[in-house]
Amino acid sequence: MAKKLFVGVDIGGTNIKSALVENGKIKKKRKLPTKANLGPERVIVQIKSAIKPFITKAAGIGIGIAGIIDSQKGIVRFSPNLSEWHNIKLVKALKKEFNKPVRIINDVNAICLGEWQYGAAKGYKNVFLFTLGTGVGGAAICEGVPLFGANGFSGEFGHSVIKFNGPKCSCGNYGCLERYVGAKYIVANAKRKMRKKITSLKNYKKLTPHIIAQEAKKGDKVSKEVFTEIGFYIGIGVSNIIALFDPDVVIISGGVSRAGRILFEPIRKTVRKRVLGAEHRNYKIIPGKLGDDAGVLGAVYFASGLTSR
Fold first, then answer.
1. Measured distance CA(26)–CA(93) in Å, rounded
2. Of 67, 58, 45, which Cα lies nearest the Cα of 19?
3. CA angle 56-15-55, nearest 5°?
4. What CATH number corresponds to the domain at position 39?
5. What's the structural domain count of the chain?
6. Which residue range is the domain that position 277 belongs to?
7. What residues are paired with 11 via a beta bridge?
8. What phi-psi label fits residue 20: left (phi over 0), alpha (psi between -120 and 50 degrees) or beta?
9. Half-sphere exposure of 256 (CA within 13 A, CB side)
10. What are the tens digits of pLDDT across the range 176-228?
11. What is the rounded CA–CA span in Å between residue 70 and residue 85?
12. This model's pTM is above 0.85
């Protein structure tokens, strides 16, 4: 990357994170509430506010945002985290405000680019990354080239089907991976098990995947059972990815991935059992390295024009 300053922005349903980035290094950061429930116009005001402190020094702006993103036309076709975001011409609005080049990309693709260039996947040519949090997303690098697909919508890993007659997913399909390992389903699974078994989880008024992970690490049998199941289901999904793409490395990022060994051990065990020729393949299944900075750095890399799309 040329040594130019760019503004990177990661737009989430709760917060907007922005940063001034030079040559893959973050110089300054800012975080603002998204105000997602107030509609597109109010959110765009927040995006502009996140960019303004850094824009005078910047050559351009890169933005990662969840949803169906038309990067070539600069349009957010749909974002599940933002109320009433349908066919929003975000690039046009920001170019008009700042008179600088702007590029937008799906947030998981941005995270993947960030980890590939600067983090856990640096130096690898074949990478698959998926995020594990409220939802489940995916993105890929194939032979050193980011894989966006014909319409730019590739990587919907969470909505790959792992059980054809499984429960209904929020997307309308049945048996999607996200329906088993998304954050709210992890909590729901734990609550079902709590009704019949003795568990330290009953000491908490409100459960989260983080709490369940912490109790699992302390030895709580119900919590360990929950994460063994999560690891199994993710392992099925990862096995499918390895069979399709034969990556060097599979990166698991996002909040739930921070559970550590209690999550990764059952994932790796399942993959070893399920992947054809596992003993002959060289692959790694590892956590992301950059945390919350990955999306911002990847969005800047995309904005710098160093991808083929």
1. 25
2. 58
3. 5
4. 3.30.420.40
5. 2
6. 122-288
7. 16, 65
8. beta
9. 28
10. 999 999 999 999 999 999 998 999 999 999 999 999 999 999 999 999 999 99
11. 13
12. yes
